[in-house]
Fold each of these.
Amino acid sequence: MKKIIAYTNVWTIAPGDTLEVKVSTYGVPRYRADLVRVICGDDDPDRGIYREEEIVAPFSGDYPGRTQIMPAGSHVCVPSSGELKHLKSFTVQVWVFPTTPEKGEQGLVSHWDEDAQRGFALVVDGSGAAALRLGAGAGKVVVVASGKPLALRRWHLVAASWDAATGELAVSQGFAGSPFEADSSSSARGKAAFVAADAGDASLLMAALPLSRSATGQTTRCHFNGKLDRPRLTGRVLSAAEIEALAWDNAPRERERLLVAGWDFSRDIGSTRVADSSFNGLHGHTVNLPSRGVKGFNWSGREQNWRHAPQEYGAIHFHDDDHYDAGWDTDFTYVVPDGLKSGVYAVRLRADDDEWYATFFVRPRRGTATAKLAFLASTVTYMAYANYRWQVHERFAEAAEVFWTTLDRGDAFLQEHPEFGLSTYDHHWDGSGVRYASRLRPVINMAPKTPLWSFNPDTHILGWLEHAGIDYDVITDEDLHHEGVALLERYEAVVTGTHPEYYTTPMWDGLRAYIARGGRLAYLGGNGFIWRCALSDELPGVLELRRAEDGIRYRDEEPGEYYLEFTGEYGGLWRRLGMAPQALVGVGTVAVGFDKSGWYRRTPESFDRRAAFIFEGIGDDEILGDFGILGGGASGSEIDAVDTMLGTPPHTLVVARSEGHSENTYLVPDETGFHHSAMEGTHNPKVRADMTFFETPGGGAVFSVGSIAWGGSLPHDGYENNVARISGNVLRRFLDPRPFAMPE
Amino acid sequence: MYQIDPTRTDLIEEFDRAPGGPHSAELKQVIMRLRTGPMTERFIVVCTRRGREWAVGRMPTERGKPVALVEGVVFDDYDNAARLVFRLRWQAATGQALG
Ligand SMILES: [Fe+2]
């Protein structure tokens, strides 16, 4: 079992910046920390290519261990205020769309002090019914429940009140689902034999209840799964008609003089801010990234974009397994010194027989380059895959990947620890797709010595660059997102990793401008430049993804919710946005298959003089890459091809084409309008990778292999093979500043 | 839906001879059936030391519960772990114990 885990405040860092290392241990009193440079992270002992270098660092040494808690579960927090403390009679109401009504008690809206047992809490109770709890201290707690479970995934108007004069309590739930379905409306009344007391300085919470103040790490419990819309708090007992009118009113403060708070989730979508539209300004904030820009109780379907009809997108979807920032205390820090070579590094932590690598990327000092080549680390893609658990949740994962589910220690640890958060490939516990993935948490699969997907296979490319003596800087997606083309223009050439799948719009624009202005891009991967995603301007280290419409999406996006909340942009495949990867790098994804890879054969176009530099030292009939770590060949896992309809530049040379693909290698959904039995590699000629090259009028050029498995062939035969030779030929020419010329 | 014929234990022998294939058309059907059952309580391989040591585990019935390891079983060869997973899933799918 895992005994040590950790994360760092940043993944990309420059000399002079401070790395904060945050560690948690399980049952070990001490641990050892050291700095290593990661050269090749593939630790299969039969291959013998693993390489790390210990680097002297001031933090090296022994440290005391301790366990730190990862808080999970999204909610809204509103600081206490005079209005809340002086509340006497009240009505609390909110539209509720429960996605796990039967899971046990779940907080809706509460101002409750758990230690003092004072205040009120509107909840979904253990039977799935709306209930109000009122307390004036230990032994003086009363609950009134509607007695009927809320209907799964249907809207209800839930309200409760307390009359300070009579002691009467009331709770109600009004079904607002389909007229074809049973009505789950219900209400109940009760009486408190005491005068309720306020919850003092406790925060008002939505979608959770507070823990005792003595709890550490996590401050909330009883997280609600589902949507809430238009919560209101009024300082008197409202009639059913008044509750209904207030529930529908966009401007409740104009309707109700005694309105204490009327929260409007349709404002500030894309941020953590929760606005109170009353005169009291009881503004709050979201915690752990619930989903915003989601369909409200009144969504009509006439608009698909939350910006065009914000009043119909006034809900927030909460999940008990949402996450953002673990917020751990820092064990030690490291100021990256000048002179530390740019590269991939890790803080190696060891405790007993267990170890952990907190991996990070050291770039050159800002505004400078220290090599002619940049390795662009796909950190946004690494984030999308962070703590990936699709293979332990998806029934048909073994059919897709053609294997027996094989977990390593890290996977088994994650299975026991849902609080460390899901990846964008996963479903929340309530069945909705995961849209947010953060790096401010321990990420088990962004490290050397992990399975060969996402980060770790990229180190096959690093290992080869080291072997070939090609000097490189490391820069990352997050740097490209923030600095754009200026970051890339310091380099003669940029080389990608094996799978640069997720791109924000600023990343896309930056890379495109770089190529147009004379930059050279070697895309040594597959399934690249596929999904538009977004980074938040407010919150560092988290991406948002909405897998709209099409593509290998692993989960369906909720209809009507295809617009990203961080940017307001339409989400989904770049291809579906009219900006296909073919128009950027010549090729785009056509097929995936994980059992067996193919190889490439040169085409007649490869003998064009323009391509001569690529094939120096390669025989005319030589089979290219019929070996490798991923599926035994250089063309596989996920493969890309040209398509003039999708924008492959017309002067693109297809210099090699793959063959030998398996019956388990299928066209991707975006490549086929209907399913049939000839969609696989032994019957469909579209299942192939195209190796392409084109020049740009600005003197730049792009070389693409269109295959994730390419990098896994580089280490073959001590990094001396025709895949390595072609890669080296391309990079050496790309690093030569002589401009490329467009063909006549 | 394809159903496994529990009397076809010759297919188990075929699998044992070559867990990584190639497999006959009938065995392919069996493997597909065994790979696409429910995720809960599915027998799986657990790699305990990369490239060197494998155990066999069983997925829990819900998220957050640990993977239970089959006691006393450690292999130094992945194929042997796959053989055991195949047999355990065969037994679970057919309801018939194997000797
Ligand atoms: Fe991917």
Amino acid sequence: MDKTQIVYTDNKDNKFWKFILNELKPKGKIFTLFNIISFPVMVLGIIIIYIRFRDGIGAVTNLNQEIPWGLWIGFDVVTGVAFAGGAYILVFMVNILNMKQYKPILRVTVLNGFLAYLFYSAALLLDLGRPLKVINVIIGNNFGVSSVLFLVGWHFLLYMLALLLEFSPAIAEWLNARKLRKVLTGISLGAVIFGITLSVLHQSGIGALYLMAVDKIHPLWYSNYLPLQFVVASVFAGISMVILEGSISHKVFSYQLEKDAHHQHNKILTGLSKICAGALFAYFSLMVIVFVHGKDWKYMNSGWGSWYLFEMIGFVILPMILFYFSYRHKNMILIRVAAVLTLLGVILNRMNISIIVYRWMDVERYVPTWQEFVVTFTIIFIEVWVFRWIITRMPVLRKSPEWVRGDH
Amino acid sequence: MIINRRNFFKAMGATAVALSIGKEASASAGEILQNDDELNGMLYDNTKCIACHGCEYDCAEAHGLEYPDIPENPPIRKTNEAQLTVVNTYETSKGPMHVKVQCMHCNQPACDAACLTQAMHKMEDGPVVWREDKCMGCRYCMISCPFDIPKFEYQSTNPRIMKCDLCYERQKEGEMPACAYNCPQEALLFGKRRDLIKEARKRIHEEPEKYIDYIYGEYEAGGTSWMYLSGAPFEELGFKTNIQKSSYPGLTKGFISSIAPVDILLPAALLGIYEATKSRTNHSTEEEE
Ligand code: SF4
Ligand code: SF4
């Protein structure tokens, strides 16, 4: 009796590992355009990362004593987190507001958010001078509770956990783990609620990081409202990312979708563009209030003033109008244009605050090295590779397996 | 789960209030520690300084750094990761005048508030010190310091944050900072902040034509433990004169104090909305049937 028992479990384990091994093999074509471009970049990026750890941060970046945070923080973290905001917005809409029509894109958005956070943390570790000491913050032997960065870090970390939980039913479906799935879906409401809370706080926290840099950031960009401004921006940044990313994966992975998915997706897009227009309007109003309250007109007459207007008109007002217009006229192409404009605008604003208008009065400017760019792209490419690996294996875009519907 | 409408909106309102505190970030800034006056600090009097640069060497020696290489008639320099203090000479309306630059040891330091591991920390008796075993090298202290003091060893694989620590180690052994100890002109006066301010006022009062009637550091950034007396206007000497008079950590206080309420109230609000929308759809589907 005993013996057979053992053999049986062995067998099961074997099957499991065989399944995993099989899934690890690449699926689909290897020599696609994307692969041909991304692979060499990734190899180069990994070499640069190696040099960074061998010779120090100064060996591969242009960071200096005046500009301690450059592209890796300014783009990967400060901008990237806003782009990943789609996850909490959609989760809020579907799971809290009960807007079921957005459910088809929920899983893929949550997955995107989770991966984004995972890789941004990796970028963050690269940028830390003494990354091993991160443990001090986590095990709590030194809590700097009055530090914005400390609070952002913890909310960030916990949110990653919440996102993983929200996505976990898909993993369970992939592994055919029925019981596990039931447990996981059971705790998901908690994960949803805390996930949204954690998001609101770390999205605003990233803006709050710059509150003490009041003498360094150009007055047109700095205000006490930075935290609020950053949360509102995360709404349209996140949704625009969902629109753009959704449009791309609907093309690339179209074989995974059901017949009516396309029509449904268009409906989703128009709904989202309405929300984007609203969020952009809220943002614009906030900026106007902030301007009227505290900003000095004299700054408007300088080059910085024009740069500010360029950002506000070209990347806030224009996409706002485009989103509204395309929502009224159900114009799918215009929606995508507006989404791209919005994303560029968010990049512009966040790069402005973290790099371009940071220390605006200095003569010497920081320009990232090519190595910093390569590493940034490496991180994005690895993320896309992992995303693709998961999409082709787990029920993210395609329907869940039969047994799931039976379970409900 | 029973959440009636009224409670639910109450919770929402409270959350909104909590969020709006975040906006009023600087409202509570400027409060001063009770024991500020008891902090150890330094008073630098540039009418006494002759720019011998001796303190630069003494500082290097006290911190195990290499002696700086200072040219004749040096240009205006900044501190860096290998030189924690520099003495600069400016041509002013009162003739050439000198300024010693180093950490200001703020009473409420931005760097301390910024640091998420408390590696940067204001000690009870005044010095703001950096502690190697805690720091993770995030450089947020550099972003936050209004005087641009913390410097980072970019070329090292185990980089340190370098800045003046008011010779904390020497102070622990009952000695005064190396620069003050060695200054041949007694341009540096080490002591309790209260006594330093008194002394500075006395000097200004006794020789009003010699001094500018201002103690830099008495109120800057909410008060600093390192203070300056000058014979020429401060703006001619490279001082940051736009530094706010209230503390820098005060700028984030509002945000930080709104976190706990949001963490508690927002989930409650979300649960409320969840219940509300759930019953609404149940209702409507029933009606449809
Ligand atoms: S001057 Fe800068 S480094 Fe020195 S205590 Fe103040 S904030 Fe910290
Ligand atoms: S670099 Fe070190 S000392 Fe500075 S804030 Fe980060 S952990 Fe603290």
